Structures are given as C-alpha cells and as structure tokens.
Amino acid sequence: MKCFYIALLAILMFSGRSQAQEKSATPVKHKKGQTEQGATAKDGRRVGKWYFYGNNDELELTFDYDSSRITYRPADTTRYLVRVGSQWELQHPTRAPRLIGSSRQRAIDIATKLRYPVVAMRQQQQGRLVMSFTVDTDGHTKDYIIENSVSPECDQEVWRVVKDLPDNWIPAVYQGQLVAARFYVVVHFRLSSELSPGSLKQGGLIAGLPPIAPAGNHFVDELIVNGQISKQTYIR
C-alpha cells in the first residue's frame, strides 16, 4: 500500500510539472502589430507552440518546435513556381512552401537593414532590383540570382541583407513529393527627388509597374528603399 501511494504521488507531481510547462509555453493574448508569440528556453531555443501573424494581424502559422510540426496554417489556393522534373511550372501544390516565421517580420527585417549605397546616390542610380532564390526540399534556400540589377553596390546591399535572414522554410509538396519552389525579392531603389505624392500604394508597392512574377502569387517580397540627395552625398 505504501508503494502505491508513493507511485500515485509521483504521477501527480509529474502531471503538475507537465501542466506548468504547457501553461508557460502558452502565449499571451495577441497584441495588434505583434508579429510572433511563443516561449523560449534558458539557452534561447524556441519551445512549444509559436504563433506567427501577417500584415493584417491575421494568424498565418502555428508551429510546434517541440514536435517540429505545423499545428495551424490557413488554406492556400495560390499557385507557386515549383520544379516538376526538369521544368519550373506554376502549380497549386498540395502543401504551399512558406517561411517558418512571420512574413511581416521578414519584410520588417529586410526594410530596417537595407541601406541606399552612397556611391549609388552619388551617381543617381535607381531602379528595380530583382533577386530570385530557391526553397529546396530540405527547407533551406539556395541558387540566389540577381535577375535584374540596379548597380553593383545596390546588388551587393541586397545580397548582404537577404542572405543573412533566417533560413528555415516549410518545403512545398506536389503530387505527393517534396519539390523545390522559387521565390523573389523585389527592391525599388528610389531617390527622394524622383518620388511624387500618390506614386506609392499602401504597403510600399509602386503603382503602374508590371509584376515581376506571375499574377496572383504569394511568393514575392517587395519594398522600397528611399535615398536622399544632398550636397553631402557628393562631398564624401
């Protein structure tokens, strides 16, 4: 009988610890503008469920770091550029590829780290830079290519920032197989003297520009880097 009570006490203690751990990993109520929520261990590792939010504060992904499983993602009927055999095709994958993280936070990270190169401003170089890359079947990126260049300095700046971003993706699944998918980063380098009121759409997209990838896609990050021409720009 004594052994029975000892065993029961051990079970209750273990159950209490499990409930406490689960409770500590539960995020607080989402705040407007917050891009992600979750708990971290003492060594900085993410643990338990993490919640990631998009531009309109919508929940776009829940990922359990303990089991490495997706526990929530909204339906996605978008077509993506996926590699089928030796060809790139615009298809509706069974599972869409996406970053394990917040798309909004990714855009913020790119925007806050990018700088307009001084040399490019001196030479009044501006335009639309397009970089493409592949999310491979192992969930990592490769094959970064500058599809449309603005200047060597602008190209290098985008390379520097994008290659330093978190590289942890959910690979695409098409016809029961893991497949590679193609993504794009579009950066508009614009000098302030060339911008006019109303030339920008909400979200930083420039009106009237043709899409760089097929219409209706969700695989383009697009933003603007503004440069200010001044006397100091030319004196340096």
Written account of the structure:
There is one protein chain. By secondary structure, the chain is an alpha+beta fold. The chain has two domains: 20-72, no CATH class; 80-235, no CATH class. It has five helices and 14 strands. β11 and β12 form a beta hairpin. Residues 2-28, 194-212 and 231-236 have low confidence and may be disordered. Belongs to the TonB family.
Q: What can be said about the biggest beta sheet? A: 4 strands, antiparallel
Strand line-up across the major sheet: 1-2-3-4
Give the count of helical stretches: 5
Q: If you compute it from the alpha carbons, what radius of gyration comes out, rounded to the nearest whole angstrom?
A: 23 Å
- Taken together, the total number of domains comes to 2
The fraction of residues in strands falls at 25-35%
Terminal CA distance reads 86 Å
Shape: globular
Taking pLDDT < 50 over at least 5 consecutive residues as the criterion, the unreliable ranges are: 2-28, 194-212, 231-236
The counted number of beta strands is 14
Class derived from helix and strand content:
alpha+beta
Family: Belongs to the TonB family.
GO cellular component, one term: plasma membrane protein complex
Main location: membrane
Keywords: Cell inner membrane, Cell membrane, Membrane, Protein transport, Signal, Transmembrane, Transmembrane helix, Transport
